[in-house]
């Protein structure tokens, strides 16, 4: 493939190759000397039109650890602020001959819009509510390690603002394909339209939703994407849907907790739980660098890029 717009672009074989490469890079990243020459001479533009800590930094680190050159552009520092269009911005970036553009944008479909207009690889780093494929892949890499490689029969609860979450959409898509039973739990106002067509079980009561799960993924309330009046109040939300230690008593023994970040302690997750042994939140960040190294490696060494891979 030229582009990664969502996890549905990937076959089961592609996902397996990403897992294997990510595992190797995780080991390399734990060494004192982490840099390898694999992508020397390649270049990657990181074009982030929405804020990011984890995704942008980990792509930057991934590129540098593979010896590729990375160049960053944010919306506020770009000529988008002078009225230049997205199309002209990305055509300008492409004229500099990068091998890939990693883009985050607030509009669903923005990654596809640019991928159709560019010859270089486009990797979607999150587009509106639509998709966040690299987050879903790093979450799967993290769970695969926690579950010793076996997704079959495991149950994951995704809890919180699912309506506005590209992370939930990509994770449901990928993890159900891998054999995970996915449950969603949210107040009705934070469930997506047509949720009944998703391959999931839907709950509104957290105490029931958490029973016998193997993992809980908490999501941030995306207040920046919500109109007034959609929410329960923050206090009501955290009382009914904030994950605490007590909820895990009803989960399977050894159940783990994930969160894509950024976290709001005391709102969607109790602060003490975020720091406990059950929490894989920082493991997700570590997996994120390795997973993005795997993706840059696989996309930039495709056969049509002069490499050996398909
Ligand atoms: N999980 C995630 O996408 O985090 P950032 O917004 O910090 O990149």
UniProtKB/TrEMBL annotation:
Protein known as: Aspartate carbamoyltransferase
Reactions accelerated catalytically: carbamoyl phosphate + L-aspartate = N-carbamoyl-L-aspartate + phosphate + H(+)
Pfam family, one: OTCace_N
Single Gene Ontology BP annotation: 'de novo' pyrimidine nucleobase biosynthetic process
InterPro entries: Asp/Orn_carbamoyltranf_P-bd, Asp/Orn_carbamoylTrfase, Asp/Orn_carbamoylTrfase_sf, Asp_carbamoyltransf, Asp_carbamoyltransf_Asp/Orn-bd
HAMAP family: Asp_carb_tr (MF_00001)
Keywords in alphabetical order: Pyrimidine biosynthesis, Transferase
E.C. numbers: 2.1.3.2
Record-listed L-aspartate binding positions: 82, 166, 220
One term of GO molecular function: aspartate carbamoyltransferase activity
GO CC annotations, alphabetized: cytosol
Pathway, per record: Pyrimidine metabolism; UMP biosynthesis via de novo pathway; (S)-dihydroorotate from bicarbonate: step 2/3
């Amino acid at each position: 493939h030229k582009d990664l717009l969502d996890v549905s672009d990937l076959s089961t074989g592609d996902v397996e190759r990403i897992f294997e490469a990510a595992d190797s890079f995780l080991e390399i990243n734990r060494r004192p000397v982490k840099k390898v020459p694999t992508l020397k001479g390649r270049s990657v533009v990181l074009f982030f039109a929405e804020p990011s800590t984890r995704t942008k930094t980990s792509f930057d680190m991934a590129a540098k650890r593979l010896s590729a050159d990375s160049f960053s552009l944010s919306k506020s520092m770009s000529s988008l602020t002078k009225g230049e269009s997205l199309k002209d911005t990305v055509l300008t970036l492409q004229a500099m001959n990068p091998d890939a553009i990693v883009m985050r944008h607030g509009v669903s479909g923005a990654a596809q819009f640019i991928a159709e207009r560019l010859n270089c690889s486009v990797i979607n780093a999150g587009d509106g509510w639509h998709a966040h494929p690299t987050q879903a892949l790093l979450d799967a890499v993290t769970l695969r390690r926690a579950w010793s490689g076996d997704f079959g029969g495991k149950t994951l609860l995704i809890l919180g603002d699912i309506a506005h979450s590209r992370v939930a959409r990509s994770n449901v898509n990928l993890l159900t394909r891998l054999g995970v039973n996915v449950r969603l739990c949210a107040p009705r106002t934070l469930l997506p339209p047509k949720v009944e067509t998703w391959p999931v079980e839907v709950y509104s009561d957290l105490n029931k939703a958490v029973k016998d799960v193997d993992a809980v993924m908490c999501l941030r309330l995306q207040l920046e994407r919500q109109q007034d009046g959609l929410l329960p109040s923050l206090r009501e939300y955290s009382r009914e849907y904030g994950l605490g230690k007590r909820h895990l008593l009803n989960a399977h023994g050894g159940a783990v907790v994930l969160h894509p970040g950024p976290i709001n302690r005391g709102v969607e997750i109790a602060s003490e739980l975020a720091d406990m042994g059950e929490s894989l939140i920082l493991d997700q960040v570590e997996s994120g660098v390795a997973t993005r190294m795997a993706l840059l490696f696989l996309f930039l060494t495709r056969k049509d890029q002069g490499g050996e891979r398909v």
